[in-house]
Every structure is written in structure tokens, then in C-alpha cells.
Amino acid sequence: MATAAKKLSKLERPPRGGQATIVEAIRQGLWEEMERDGTVFLIGEDVGVYGGAFKVTEGLIDHFGKERVIDTPIAEAAIVGAACGAALMGLKPVAEFQFIDFISCGFDMLTNYAAKSRYRWGGSIPAVFRGPCGSGVRSGPFHSLNAESFFLNTAGLKIVEPSTAYDAKGLIKAAIRDPDPVLYFEHKKLYRLPRLREELPEDDYIVEIGKARIAREGRDVSIITFGAQVLTALDAAEELEKEGLDVEVIDLRTLAPMDKEAILSSVKKTSRALILHEASLTGGIGGEISAIISQEAFEWLDAPVLRVASIDTPVPYSPPLEDYYLPQVKDVLDAARKLAAY
Amino acid sequence: MAENQKQNGNSKRGPRRRPAFQMRINTKYAPRKVADGQALSCITGSSLTDRQMLDLYRYLKLTRLVEERIVNLYRQTKVVGGVYRSLGQEATAVGSAYALRPDDFITPIIRDLGACFVKGIRPREIFAQYMAKAWGPSGGKDLNVHFGYMEKGFIGPISHLGDMIPVMTGILLGARLQKKDIVGLAYIGDGGASTGAFYEGMNFAAVQKLPLIVIAEHNQYAYSTPTNMQTAVRNLAEKAAAFGISGYIVDGNDVIACYEVTKQAVDYARSGRGAVLIEAKTYRRKGHAEHDDQRYVPDGEIDWWEKHNDPVDRFERFLLDKKIATKEKLDEITADAQREIDEDSEWAESSPMPEAEGAVYGVFDNSIVPPAFRPKVLEN
Fold first, then answer.
1. Domains, chain B, ranges and CATH?
2. pLDDT for B166-224, tens place per residue?
3. Which chain A residues touch B108 with a CB distance below 8 Å?
4. Is 0.90 surpassed by the pTM of this model?
5. pLDDT tier at B37, thresholds 50, 70, 90
6. Minimal Cα distance from B141: which residue of A?
7. What is the DSSP string of A283-296?
């Protein structure tokens, strides 16, 4: 009975390329890498028959079997630790956190084991740790986290977060092929956003880790951002264009190691920098970017570096509260106008 | 309601019959009382050959003497960090690791130096590590047994106790995907067995029926904390019930018993029957590290263990009583171990310290991400 129902829902292999949302792009990437390389396997809570809480891994267990799509107990330390061990053996695990909030339960294994292994004794850990991050979907304090700054101060972890379907696929493939541990954050608000559906190439491609992209070219103000806030920045840029302000949007894509050159060359061009991120302001990645700019592009600046970010509270649940918590287009407009007028 | 339906094993219509879990702790190798006035020895009836027994003896002596040398180097301020001894519990590490094949994996804790030697780590590497030298396997980046050799099946621990249980679980998961029939032996202490990582790792290994053997060295103290402040179970082996796996208790100061119990567990695990927890009853005669004055230990306790239950004394007594070796033969083995130590210690002392700039390399694969040089400040 149960098996028959399961058979019916068995998914076909996703197409190579074609129109895809972010969630489809990640799934394509995982599928292709598992096909290409027999050492790639998935591990996490409910990633198998259920296909993951957001269905990123749907259908993979039918195709690749439970040996390579491993459902685990609710035990993030075990998931991360086991991924590390298997990676030491030469396998390429892709571990899923059901929500990035639960990365805290694997924090010790990530920061002390995965991050330091190569440095301490040359034990490379080619593992990917991925999961849905981000707020704006009314999920409250425990399902809305942006965790990048927790890890930014740990040497040895690469951090990526795509904001387009093309990058989502290219970065998951690059992360799997990378010889070092990569945290791959997926903004859950973007997973199925129709606006981000795009045509992906049929051919195999990767997006190089460590390289930002210019999401929109402009001359007057640089907005440096990533993840879902790229959309906020682009929306603001369109508004500002009407006012004659030509905004450049830099999508970092990789948060560690950061593409300093892309940030600096944009700021040297526009002389005005606005950093936009979704995590709380204090101790956020914006402080780091701001420091880089003021130290290495001070002479080019025509205005102070501004940061727009969420307020310093946990992520609240109720829509009015969460909207207040999050940076809005209006906040970006205000900041950009201030910069332009400085 | 469905949940009220009796699902006892006798009902023919019950779902899948599964025998109730029975707490099984094998005590065949547990410590035994001996008659008054009789000195402790080792168990008889072992499958070990005489040659293997002498091999074990050499590892025991090597461990003890290497640690004594490290203490000397520490007193000469040549050791940069702390020194952690396994005095009085060497038999657990040596006997258990000896039951493995060369391709099996271990991950020791700090008091398992003997297991490292059995797995092919050389004293010179340990000396160089303690002295933070360039020629140490971590090149001065990490301490003591914190390094690894995948090709030797050796993965050093990190300071966070319990973390290596999930890592070893992953090693075995990886090995299974690679169709290798290796087993993994992870060590933990009575303190480390309180950590979440220990539970998560063991639970996952048990669910996956991975060939993981965990040896819980019950040496009575975690730093200064006695076991009754650490856990409410009397025997650490009882924790096996939480994972639905078998538990064993072994006399951790009987090197032959430690070998035999591990051999049995290895055979069990390798045959696909899953994880095993072995509790080794032993005693830590030194403090947590060299600086620890052990003020928390009741008077006379350490002396009692030294006099009546020293693993090296016990094994020596056994070898002599059973006429497996003469005193001269044992002295010869000890002298040979001492020679190796002299030579290796000299080698390690002759190593340079690492170049300071070496600190920048190896965070990532440096062919992809450049080394972490200190950024030049305000340079035009």
C-alpha cells in the first residue's frame, strides 16, 4: 500500500538546464554531481523518502538508493561529524540542516573539527553543509536565521549564498567539487520565487567560489549585499533610477573568502558604499565589509560607509513585527539618498 | 484507538514481531576479586602467542617510558604545553588496539598513547609534537596526539571530548560506501561519555549498524570530577542500553583481558552486527595534567592502585609465572624500548622549531585560496 503510493510519486530525473527555480536548480546540481561522481552522497534529517523539509532532495533516494541518501536521527553533531569522517575517507558528503537555525547544534563540529582539520594535520574535508536560511516568511525566532556571521570569524569554512537559480546550481556544484568544507546557505524565501525562475544552460558549469557578481551596473552608489536582499537592493535601485541615481548592486555570492576586489573596484568607481544584509546589524558581515572599504578605499570615498540591516533582536513571528525587523526597500532608499546627498 | 491496541509479541496480527530489548552486559572479562594475599595477574586461556604477549609487553613499557621521558622534557621546559599521562591505565589502550587489523581505524583520547604506538605512530613523532617542533606530524600547529595518518588508520582527537565518536561513525559510513570491511575503535573517558556528541554519534552508529567499538575508559576522574558526579549509572557499560547495543565490562588493567574483549567486539562488529560499548575499569594515577596536584583524591587511593593493581606489574607477574619470559628477557625488551626512546627523543630535540611564517599556510587548499598572510596596513 505504502510502497505503491510511493512508486506513483516517484520523480523523474530532473532535466539538464531549462527553466528552473532556485530549489529546482539546487536539485539539478545535486543530481548531476551524484551522477558524475559516485563518492557524492547526501545525509540529513528527512532527506530520503520525504525529500527534505523543502523538497530539495526529492526523488534522489529513489534514484540513488538509501546508501547514498541517508536519513539520520535528529542529531546535528552526528550529521556534521559523520560528514567529516566520511570526507576524510575521500567521500564527498552533502549534509543538510533542516533549517539553518539548527546549525547551532552542529556548531562545535563545524568550527572545531571541520574548519581546523586541514590546518592541524592536513586532513582535508571536502564536505558541503547546506540548508535553508533567512527570514521574511513568518517562521519566527527558530526558523529564520541568517547564520553567516557566526562562522565568518572561523578560519577554514567557506560560505556561499546564491540569489539566482543560475548561481544556485553553479555554486552547489562548485561546493561539492571544492576540497574544503563549504557552508551553502539557501534563502528559503527565494526557493520557489517565480521572479527568479530562469533558463539554465544544459551544459555542465560551475560558479567559482570566491567571486562576487555585479547584479546591476551603476555609477553613483554601490550597494553590497547577497541572498534575498539582492532583490531588495534591485527594487530600490529601480526606484532610485527614476530620481536619476545610478545604483550598482554587488551580489557577493561568496561570503568567505570574500571577493574584496569586486567590492573595492565597485566602491572606487562610485565612491559611495551601502552595505545591506538581513542578519542583525551588530556584529554582522556589514561591519567587516565596511572595515575593508575604509581601510583600503578611504581616499576614494565621498561619504561614510552606511549599513542597512535587521534590528538587533531575534527574528519575530508576527508580520508587522517581522517587517519592522527586516530591512525594507524604503530603508535602502533613505540610505542611498543620504549617501548621494552627502 | 490504535495506540491502545496491545502490540505484544504473541499476537499473530501484531505488526512486525520484535523481541523486547534485553539489557545485556557481558562481564566475562570484568575485574575479579582474588583471594586475600594473592597478587593480581592476568586472565588465562588467551589465544595470543608468546611472541604476541611479549609484543604487548614492549608496547606497555614503551608507553610508560615515553611518558616518563616527556615529563623529563617538560621539567627541562622543552615541552611547550601540558603533559597528560596514562600512568596506571596503559593496558586498556595497548590491549584493545592490539586486537585490530592494520587497516582498521582508531581515534584515541589523550590517555591512549599506547594505542597510538600499536597503530604505528613512533615515539619521535610524539616527542616532536610535545616540543612543538617543525618535524612533528602537525608541524607545530597542534599538540601531542592531535594529528592523523589516514594510511595508518589513525585519527587524532581534538580537545572537545565526544566529538570523535561522530567522526569515527562517518569514517565507517564512508568505508561502507567504499565496500571496505574495516572496524573503528574510538576511545572515550568517564567524563567524555557525558557529552552530547558521544550520545549522538553512538546512537547514529547503532541505528546504521556500523562496526563502531567504543571503549569507555572508566579511570574514576575527569580532571577532578569523580564518576559519581559525572553520571548516575554505576557501570558506563549500562549506557549501551540507550543505544540498543551490547555492553561489555573489562578489567582495564589486565592487558590480556582488554585484548580478548576487544577481539570479541571486533569480530562481532565486523560480521555486521553493529556497534559495541566496552567499559574498561581502570584508574588514573596521575592528575589531569602534570600541573594537577590531585588534592581531590582521598589519601592512600593512588598508593593502593600503584601497589596492588598496576597493569605493567600484573602482566610481568603473569609472564614470569607462566614462564612465557624470564626476567632477563623482560629486561632486554625494556632496554630495547629505552634505546628507541633515547634515539627518538634526540631526533625530536634536534628538530628546528617551525618557521614563524608557516602559520599562514593550510587553512584551505592554498592552490585555490591564498595563504592567510597578515594584510599590509595602509600601504599605497
1. 49-291+300-360 (3.40.50.970)
2. 999 999 999 999 999 999 999 999 999 999 999 999 999 999 999 999 999 999 999 99
3. none
4. yes
5. confident
6. A120
7. TSHHHHHHHHHHHH
Exposure string for B192-224, b = 16+ CB within 10 A, e = fewer: bbbbebbbbbbbbbbbbebbbbbbbbbbbbbee
Q: Quick one: angle between helices B90-97 and B50-75, nearest 10?
A: 130
Q: Which residues of A are the active-site residues?
A: 143
Domains detected in chain A: 2-200 (3.40.50.970), 213-341 (3.40.50.920)
What is the rounded CA–CA span in Å between residue A289 and residue A279?
14
**B147 in contact with A, Cβ within 8 Å:** yes
- Residue B46 has a pLDDT of 96
Using the beta-carbon criterion (under 8 Å), do B169 and A81 form an inter-chain contact? Answer: yes
Which of chain A's residues have a Cβ under 8 Å away from the Cβ of B177?
Answer: 39, 41, 67-68, 86, 91
C-alpha cell at B337: 624500548
What rounded mean pLDDT belongs to chain B? Answer: 94
Q: How many residues would you count in chain A?
A: 342
* The residue to which cell 553533531 is assigned: A77
Of all residues in chain B, the one with the smallest CA distance to A90 is B174
Report phi then psi at A74, rounded to 5.
Answer: -80, 90
Measured between CA atoms, the residue of chain B closest to residue A68 is B177
Q: List, as one string, the DSSP characters of B169-232.
A: HHHHHHHHHTT----EEEEEETTGGGSHHHHHHHHHHHHTT--EEEEEEE-SEETTEEGGGT-S
Nearest in space to A293 (alpha carbons), one of A330, A250, A260? A260
Chain A residues with CB-CB distance to B196 below 8 A:
77
Cis omega (within 30 of 0) on the bond before B375?
no
SS3 content of chain B, % helix, strand, coil (to 5): 40, 10, 45
Amino acid at B37: G
Please state, as a whole number, how many other Cβ atoms lie within 10 Å of the Cβ of residue A18.
13
Give me chain A's average pLDDT, please.
96
Q: Mind listing the pLDDT tens digit for each residue in A102-126?
A: 999 999 999 999 999 999 999 999 9
Q: Do A89 and B171 touch (CB under 8 A)?
A: yes
Report whether A204 contacts A37 (CB < 8 A). Answer: no
At CA B372, angle to CA B366 and CA B376, rounded to 5? Answer: 135
Furthest C-alpha separation in chain A: 71
Across the interface, do B196 and A113 touch by the CB < 8 Å criterion?
no
ipTM of the complex: 0.94
The separation between CA B183 and the C-alpha centre of its own chain, rounded to angstroms, equals: 15
Phi/psi at B374 (5° precision):
-65, 125
Grid cell at residue A22: 532556485
Alpha-carbon distance A73 to A68, whole Å? 16
Nearest CA among B185, B209, B217, B214 for reference residue B198 = B214
Q: Give the number of other Cβ atoms within 10 Å of residue A341's Cβ.
A: 8
